[in-house]
Amino acid sequence: MTNRRKTRTVSVGSIEIGGNSPIAIQSMTNTHTDDIETTAKQIHELETLKCRIIRVAVPDVKTVRCLGELKKRINIPLVADIHFGHNLAIEAIKQGVDKIRINPGNMQNREKLEEIVRLAKDKGIPIRIGVNSGSIRSNNGHNEDLVELMVKTTLKYCEHFESLGFKDIVVSLKASDVQKTMDAYRSIAKQCDYPLHLGITAAGAPDDAVIKSAIGIGGLLSEGIGDTLRVSYTGPPHQEVQAGYKILEALGLSKSTDPEIISCPTCGRCEIDLLNIVNEVKKRLPAQKQSVQIAVMGCIVNGPGEAMEADIGIAGGKGVGFLFKKGEKIRKVPEGEMVSALLEEIKTI
User: Fold this and answer.
1) Where is the IspG TIM-barrel domain (predicted)?
2) Is 264 a known ligand-binding residue?
3) Which of 173, 256, 269, 339 is most deeply packed, by most CB within 10 A?
Protein backbone atom coordinates (compact mmCIF):
# COMPACT_ATOMS: atom_id res chain seq x y z
CA MET A 1 0.00 0.00 0.00
CA THR A 2 1.30 3.49 -0.85
CA ASN A 3 2.03 6.13 1.76
CA ARG A 4 -0.99 8.01 3.02
CA ARG A 5 -1.70 11.35 1.40
CA LYS A 6 -0.63 14.35 3.50
CA THR A 7 -3.45 16.65 4.59
CA ARG A 8 -4.13 19.43 7.01
CA THR A 9 -5.59 18.34 10.37
CA VAL A 10 -9.18 19.24 11.26
CA SER A 11 -10.65 18.76 14.73
CA VAL A 12 -14.20 17.44 15.00
CA GLY A 13 -14.95 17.70 18.69
CA SER A 14 -12.45 15.43 20.43
CA ILE A 15 -11.49 13.62 17.19
CA GLU A 16 -8.75 14.81 14.87
CA ILE A 17 -9.04 13.83 11.23
CA GLY A 18 -6.42 14.12 8.55
CA GLY A 19 -2.71 14.54 9.19
CA ASN A 20 -1.37 11.48 10.97
CA SER A 21 -4.63 10.71 12.78
CA PRO A 22 -6.19 7.25 12.43
CA ILE A 23 -8.87 6.91 9.77
CA ALA A 24 -12.18 7.59 11.50
CA ILE A 25 -15.27 5.44 10.95
CA GLN A 26 -18.47 7.45 10.70
CA SER A 27 -22.13 6.59 10.39
CA MET A 28 -25.49 8.33 10.24
CA THR A 29 -28.58 7.61 12.31
CA ASN A 30 -31.77 6.51 10.56
CA THR A 31 -34.05 7.66 13.38
CA HIS A 32 -36.10 10.85 13.46
CA THR A 33 -33.58 13.17 15.07
CA ASP A 34 -36.24 14.99 17.09
CA ASP A 35 -37.00 11.69 18.84
CA ILE A 36 -34.10 12.30 21.19
CA GLU A 37 -34.49 9.13 23.26
CA THR A 38 -34.49 6.79 20.26
CA THR A 39 -31.72 8.68 18.47
CA ALA A 40 -29.47 8.74 21.54
CA LYS A 41 -30.08 5.01 22.07
CA GLN A 42 -29.02 4.23 18.50
CA ILE A 43 -25.92 6.41 18.83
CA HIS A 44 -24.94 4.60 22.05
CA GLU A 45 -25.23 1.30 20.19
CA LEU A 46 -22.97 2.67 17.44
CA GLU A 47 -20.49 3.96 20.04
CA THR A 48 -20.22 0.39 21.34
CA LEU A 49 -19.26 -0.70 17.81
CA LYS A 50 -16.50 1.97 17.81
CA CYS A 51 -18.21 4.51 15.60
CA ARG A 52 -16.03 7.61 16.02
CA ILE A 53 -18.26 10.35 14.55
CA ILE A 54 -22.04 10.39 14.09
CA ARG A 55 -24.15 12.44 11.66
CA VAL A 56 -27.85 13.19 12.01
CA ALA A 57 -30.41 14.57 9.58
CA VAL A 58 -31.66 18.09 10.31
CA PRO A 59 -34.67 18.69 8.05
CA ASP A 60 -36.55 21.39 9.99
CA VAL A 61 -36.56 23.91 12.84
CA LYS A 62 -38.12 21.48 15.33
CA THR A 63 -35.28 19.06 14.74
CA VAL A 64 -32.43 21.55 14.89
CA ARG A 65 -33.56 22.73 18.31
CA CYS A 66 -33.06 19.19 19.65
CA LEU A 67 -29.37 19.04 18.80
CA GLY A 68 -28.07 20.64 21.99
CA GLU A 69 -29.92 18.17 24.19
CA LEU A 70 -28.90 15.25 21.98
CA LYS A 71 -25.25 16.27 22.18
CA LYS A 72 -25.40 16.17 25.99
CA ARG A 73 -26.49 12.53 25.89
CA ILE A 74 -23.80 11.08 23.62
CA ASN A 75 -20.05 10.62 23.84
CA ILE A 76 -18.86 11.04 20.24
CA PRO A 77 -18.76 14.13 18.01
CA LEU A 78 -22.10 15.16 16.52
CA VAL A 79 -22.42 16.31 12.90
CA ALA A 80 -25.51 18.11 11.61
CA ASP A 81 -26.50 17.26 8.04
CA ILE A 82 -27.99 20.41 6.51
CA HIS A 83 -29.61 20.98 3.13
CA PHE A 84 -31.28 24.09 1.70
CA GLY A 85 -32.03 26.04 4.91
CA HIS A 86 -29.16 28.31 5.92
CA ASN A 87 -31.08 29.12 9.11
CA LEU A 88 -30.82 25.45 10.12
CA ALA A 89 -27.05 25.55 9.73
CA ILE A 90 -26.84 28.72 11.82
CA GLU A 91 -28.97 27.24 14.58
CA ALA A 92 -27.11 23.91 14.50
CA ILE A 93 -23.84 25.76 15.15
CA LYS A 94 -25.46 27.70 18.00
CA GLN A 95 -26.71 24.40 19.43
CA GLY A 96 -23.08 23.30 19.78
CA VAL A 97 -22.66 20.58 17.15
CA ASP A 98 -19.10 19.53 16.40
CA LYS A 99 -19.33 19.85 12.61
CA ILE A 100 -21.86 20.67 9.95
CA ARG A 101 -22.18 19.05 6.55
CA ILE A 102 -23.59 21.18 3.79
CA ASN A 103 -23.84 21.00 0.03
CA PRO A 104 -23.30 24.63 -1.00
CA GLY A 105 -25.07 23.97 -4.29
CA ASN A 106 -28.29 23.60 -2.32
CA MET A 107 -27.85 27.09 -0.85
CA GLN A 108 -28.08 29.57 -3.69
CA ASN A 109 -27.97 32.78 -1.65
CA ARG A 110 -24.30 33.77 -1.46
CA GLU A 111 -24.70 36.15 1.49
CA LYS A 112 -26.50 33.55 3.59
CA LEU A 113 -23.87 30.93 2.77
CA GLU A 114 -21.16 33.35 3.87
CA GLU A 115 -23.05 33.95 7.13
CA ILE A 116 -22.75 30.23 7.87
CA VAL A 117 -19.05 30.20 7.11
CA ARG A 118 -18.31 33.23 9.28
CA LEU A 119 -20.23 31.84 12.25
CA ALA A 120 -18.52 28.46 11.90
CA LYS A 121 -15.15 30.26 11.88
CA ASP A 122 -16.05 32.24 15.01
CA LYS A 123 -17.18 29.09 16.85
CA GLY A 124 -14.33 26.88 15.63
CA ILE A 125 -16.72 24.46 13.91
CA PRO A 126 -15.48 22.63 10.79
CA ILE A 127 -17.59 22.24 7.67
CA ARG A 128 -17.73 19.26 5.38
CA ILE A 129 -18.44 20.32 1.83
CA GLY A 130 -20.35 17.28 0.67
CA VAL A 131 -21.04 17.13 -3.05
CA ASN A 132 -22.82 14.18 -4.64
CA SER A 133 -23.61 13.22 -8.20
CA GLY A 134 -27.39 13.54 -7.91
CA SER A 135 -27.49 17.10 -6.61
CA ILE A 136 -24.71 18.40 -8.83
CA ARG A 137 -26.49 17.24 -11.97
CA SER A 138 -29.81 18.78 -10.92
CA ASN A 139 -28.12 22.07 -10.02
CA ASN A 140 -26.06 22.36 -13.18
CA GLY A 141 -28.28 20.70 -15.77
CA HIS A 142 -25.73 20.11 -18.50
CA ASN A 143 -23.67 17.31 -19.97
CA GLU A 144 -20.22 18.14 -18.59
CA ASP A 145 -18.18 15.12 -17.49
CA LEU A 146 -19.43 14.18 -14.02
CA VAL A 147 -16.01 13.69 -12.45
CA GLU A 148 -14.69 17.02 -13.75
CA LEU A 149 -17.89 18.76 -12.69
CA MET A 150 -17.76 17.39 -9.14
CA VAL A 151 -14.11 18.27 -8.65
CA LYS A 152 -14.31 21.72 -10.24
CA THR A 153 -17.45 22.65 -8.30
CA THR A 154 -16.07 21.42 -4.98
CA LEU A 155 -12.80 23.32 -5.38
CA LYS A 156 -14.77 26.44 -6.27
CA TYR A 157 -16.69 26.15 -2.98
CA CYS A 158 -13.44 25.58 -1.09
CA GLU A 159 -11.85 28.64 -2.67
CA HIS A 160 -14.86 30.71 -1.66
CA PHE A 161 -14.67 29.51 1.95
CA GLU A 162 -10.91 30.13 2.06
CA SER A 163 -11.45 33.69 0.80
CA LEU A 164 -13.45 34.28 3.99
CA GLY A 165 -10.54 33.07 6.11
CA PHE A 166 -12.14 29.70 6.81
CA LYS A 167 -9.79 26.72 6.61
CA ASP A 168 -11.36 23.90 8.65
CA ILE A 169 -12.74 22.18 5.57
CA VAL A 170 -13.41 18.50 4.95
CA VAL A 171 -14.45 17.36 1.48
CA SER A 172 -16.48 14.50 0.04
CA LEU A 173 -17.43 13.76 -3.58
CA LYS A 174 -19.77 10.79 -3.72
CA ALA A 175 -21.49 9.06 -6.60
CA SER A 176 -23.36 5.77 -6.82
CA ASP A 177 -20.99 4.82 -9.65
CA VAL A 178 -17.91 3.31 -8.01
CA GLN A 179 -15.43 4.15 -10.77
CA LYS A 180 -16.56 7.77 -11.06
CA THR A 181 -16.36 8.17 -7.29
CA MET A 182 -12.80 6.83 -7.25
CA ASP A 183 -11.79 9.03 -10.18
CA ALA A 184 -13.22 12.12 -8.48
CA TYR A 185 -11.34 11.48 -5.24
CA ARG A 186 -8.10 10.71 -7.08
CA SER A 187 -8.38 13.96 -9.00
CA ILE A 188 -9.14 16.22 -6.06
CA ALA A 189 -6.50 14.50 -3.90
CA LYS A 190 -3.84 15.90 -6.27
CA GLN A 191 -5.21 19.45 -6.10
CA CYS A 192 -5.71 20.20 -2.40
CA ASP A 193 -4.71 19.20 1.12
CA TYR A 194 -8.18 18.94 2.67
CA PRO A 195 -9.04 15.76 4.60
CA LEU A 196 -11.28 13.56 2.48
CA HIS A 197 -14.36 11.73 3.73
CA LEU A 198 -14.89 8.59 1.63
CA GLY A 199 -18.10 6.86 0.65
CA ILE A 200 -20.21 5.48 -2.16
CA THR A 201 -23.61 7.15 -2.10
CA ALA A 202 -26.87 5.25 -2.65
CA ALA A 203 -24.90 2.00 -2.61
CA GLY A 204 -28.02 -0.06 -1.91
CA ALA A 205 -28.85 -2.96 0.39
CA PRO A 206 -26.03 -4.45 2.49
CA ASP A 207 -25.15 -7.33 0.16
CA ASP A 208 -24.68 -4.91 -2.76
CA ALA A 209 -23.32 -1.97 -0.78
CA VAL A 210 -20.57 -3.95 0.90
CA ILE A 211 -19.13 -4.95 -2.50
CA LYS A 212 -19.27 -1.41 -3.91
CA SER A 213 -17.80 0.07 -0.73
CA ALA A 214 -15.04 -2.51 -0.40
CA ILE A 215 -13.95 -1.75 -3.97
CA GLY A 216 -14.42 2.03 -3.90
CA ILE A 217 -13.41 2.91 -0.35
CA GLY A 218 -10.88 0.11 -0.04
CA GLY A 219 -9.33 0.92 -3.38
CA LEU A 220 -8.82 4.57 -2.46
CA LEU A 221 -7.46 3.73 0.98
CA SER A 222 -4.98 1.32 -0.62
CA GLU A 223 -3.67 4.30 -2.62
CA GLY A 224 -3.27 6.39 0.54
CA ILE A 225 -6.39 8.49 -0.12
CA GLY A 226 -8.96 9.02 2.64
CA ASP A 227 -9.18 10.26 6.23
CA THR A 228 -12.71 9.31 7.30
CA LEU A 229 -15.26 6.96 5.81
CA ARG A 230 -18.85 5.84 5.89
CA VAL A 231 -20.10 2.61 4.36
CA SER A 232 -23.63 3.56 3.30
CA TYR A 233 -26.27 0.84 3.65
CA THR A 234 -30.00 0.90 3.06
CA GLY A 235 -31.17 -0.07 6.54
CA PRO A 236 -29.95 0.23 10.15
CA PRO A 237 -26.49 1.79 10.45
CA HIS A 238 -24.90 -0.79 12.76
CA GLN A 239 -23.62 -2.92 9.87
CA GLU A 240 -22.11 0.19 8.28
CA VAL A 241 -19.68 0.57 11.16
CA GLN A 242 -18.80 -3.12 11.23
CA ALA A 243 -18.18 -3.14 7.47
CA GLY A 244 -16.02 -0.03 7.74
CA TYR A 245 -13.74 -1.73 10.22
CA LYS A 246 -13.59 -4.87 8.09
CA ILE A 247 -12.30 -2.74 5.21
CA LEU A 248 -9.67 -1.11 7.44
CA GLU A 249 -8.62 -4.46 8.90
CA ALA A 250 -8.28 -6.05 5.46
CA LEU A 251 -5.84 -3.28 4.51
CA GLY A 252 -3.92 -3.46 7.79
CA LEU A 253 -5.15 0.02 8.79
CA SER A 254 -6.91 -1.16 11.94
CA LYS A 255 -6.09 -4.04 14.26
CA SER A 256 -9.02 -6.36 14.89
CA THR A 257 -9.94 -7.37 18.42
CA ASP A 258 -12.11 -10.16 17.02
CA PRO A 259 -10.92 -13.60 15.96
CA GLU A 260 -10.15 -13.92 12.25
CA ILE A 261 -10.96 -17.20 10.55
CA ILE A 262 -9.07 -18.08 7.39
CA SER A 263 -10.58 -20.92 5.38
CA CYS A 264 -9.95 -22.16 1.87
CA PRO A 265 -12.38 -22.24 -1.05
CA THR A 266 -13.60 -25.81 -1.29
CA CYS A 267 -12.63 -27.86 -4.31
CA GLY A 268 -12.47 -31.49 -5.34
CA ARG A 269 -9.41 -32.08 -3.13
CA CYS A 270 -11.32 -31.27 0.07
CA GLU A 271 -12.14 -34.44 2.01
CA ILE A 272 -13.63 -32.98 5.21
CA ASP A 273 -16.90 -31.10 5.81
CA LEU A 274 -15.07 -27.77 5.83
CA LEU A 275 -18.07 -25.41 5.76
CA ASN A 276 -19.71 -27.12 8.72
CA ILE A 277 -16.45 -27.03 10.71
CA VAL A 278 -15.93 -23.30 9.99
CA ASN A 279 -19.52 -22.42 10.95
CA GLU A 280 -19.28 -24.47 14.14
CA VAL A 281 -16.03 -22.80 15.17
CA LYS A 282 -17.54 -19.34 14.56
CA LYS A 283 -20.63 -20.24 16.57
CA ARG A 284 -18.67 -21.58 19.53
CA LEU A 285 -15.91 -19.01 19.78
CA PRO A 286 -15.55 -17.58 23.31
CA ALA A 287 -17.68 -14.54 24.03
CA GLN A 288 -14.62 -12.68 25.28
CA LYS A 289 -13.11 -10.85 22.33
CA GLN A 290 -9.50 -11.59 21.46
CA SER A 291 -7.30 -11.00 18.46
CA VAL A 292 -6.41 -14.45 17.19
CA GLN A 293 -6.02 -15.84 13.68
CA ILE A 294 -7.53 -19.26 13.06
CA ALA A 295 -6.90 -21.25 9.88
CA VAL A 296 -9.32 -24.01 8.90
CA MET A 297 -8.00 -25.57 5.71
CA GLY A 298 -9.45 -28.44 3.73
CA CYS A 299 -6.54 -30.09 1.89
CA ILE A 300 -2.80 -30.59 1.82
CA VAL A 301 -1.98 -28.14 -1.00
CA ASN A 302 -2.07 -24.81 0.86
CA GLY A 303 -3.41 -26.15 4.15
CA PRO A 304 -0.20 -26.81 6.09
CA GLY A 305 1.37 -23.50 5.10
CA GLU A 306 -1.69 -21.43 6.04
CA ALA A 307 -2.17 -23.40 9.27
CA MET A 308 1.46 -22.82 10.25
CA GLU A 309 1.17 -19.05 9.66
CA ALA A 310 -1.95 -18.70 11.81
CA ASP A 311 -2.04 -18.66 15.61
CA ILE A 312 -4.07 -21.87 15.54
CA GLY A 313 -4.74 -23.98 12.47
CA ILE A 314 -6.05 -27.25 11.11
CA ALA A 315 -4.90 -28.71 7.80
CA GLY A 316 -7.39 -31.36 6.76
CA GLY A 317 -6.90 -34.66 4.99
CA LYS A 318 -9.21 -37.62 4.48
CA GLY A 319 -11.25 -37.61 7.68
CA VAL A 320 -8.36 -36.25 9.75
CA GLY A 321 -6.29 -33.12 10.10
CA PHE A 322 -3.05 -31.88 11.59
CA LEU A 323 -3.34 -29.29 14.35
CA PHE A 324 -0.83 -26.42 14.31
CA LYS A 325 -0.11 -23.80 16.99
CA LYS A 326 2.20 -20.83 16.43
CA GLY A 327 3.86 -22.55 13.48
CA GLU A 328 4.41 -25.89 15.21
CA LYS A 329 2.64 -29.13 14.29
CA ILE A 330 1.06 -30.49 17.49
CA ARG A 331 -0.87 -33.64 16.66
CA LYS A 332 -3.23 -35.46 14.33
CA VAL A 333 -6.96 -34.89 15.02
CA PRO A 334 -9.96 -36.89 13.73
CA GLU A 335 -12.49 -34.86 11.77
CA GLY A 336 -15.11 -35.21 14.49
CA GLU A 337 -12.78 -33.64 17.07
CA MET A 338 -11.43 -30.75 14.99
CA VAL A 339 -13.78 -28.09 16.35
CA SER A 340 -13.22 -28.97 19.99
CA ALA A 341 -9.46 -29.23 19.47
CA LEU A 342 -9.31 -25.78 17.90
CA LEU A 343 -11.42 -24.24 20.65
CA GLU A 344 -9.31 -25.80 23.40
CA GLU A 345 -6.13 -24.42 21.91
CA ILE A 346 -7.70 -20.96 21.44
CA LYS A 347 -8.36 -20.83 25.18
CA THR A 348 -4.64 -21.26 25.85
CA ILE A 349 -3.61 -18.18 23.85
Assistant:
1) 7-244
2) yes
3) 173
pLDDT given for residue 307 in this prediction? 86
At residue 1 the predicted structure's pLDDT band, cuts being 50, 70 and 90, is low
pLDDT score for 189: 98
User: Which DSSP symbol is given to 300?
Assistant: T
For 217-248, b where at least 16 C-beta lie within 10 A, e where not — what string? bbbbbbbebbbbbbbbbeeebbbbbbbbbbbb
Among 139-153, 174-188, 299-313, whose mean pLDDT is lowest? 139-153
CA distance 312 to 294: 5
The pLDDT of residue 84: 84
How do the domains of the chain map onto residue ranges?
A: 9-250, 260-347
**Separation of alpha carbons 75 and 52, rounded Å:** 9
pLDDT band at 299 (very low <50, low <70, confident <90, very high): confident
Whole-model pTM: value is 0.85
Q: Domain 260-347 in CATH: superfamily?
A: Sulfite Reductase Hemoprotein, domain 1 (3.30.413.10)
CATH class for the region spanning 9-250: alpha beta
Strands (E), 204-267: 228-229, 260-263
